[in-house]
Request: fold
Amino acid sequence: MTEIAPDADIKPAATILLLRDDPAFEVLMVKRHHQIDFASGALVFPGGKSHAGDHDPAWADHTLGHADFDAEQRGLRIAAIREVVPAAALVDRLAREYAQAAQALAMDPQIRETRQETTS
Reply:
């Protein structure tokens, strides 16, 4: 386990839990890079440290319920969303690649013949 110095600064961070239940129950998780000092290789929910831009008052024009939370909570919510975008894009890219591969396989004459033989 990673040792944490007793005088280490606490950095505000946020994580987000994305779920879906169709076609099956799934949870979006990402694997941390193996060369990161803290929790390397761990499966985690997307998230990370908040950045100065996450606390920009201009977000008020692009969010719902902005006034319902204090400035720290608003920034953490923006950070969680910012951090999930690359992870969700990766999932979307992989899904498109899988669909393209499945379509290419479906067009392969040998595979079509095998399917016809097994369904006949």
Remarks:
- The CA atoms of residues 34 and 40 lie 5 Å apart.
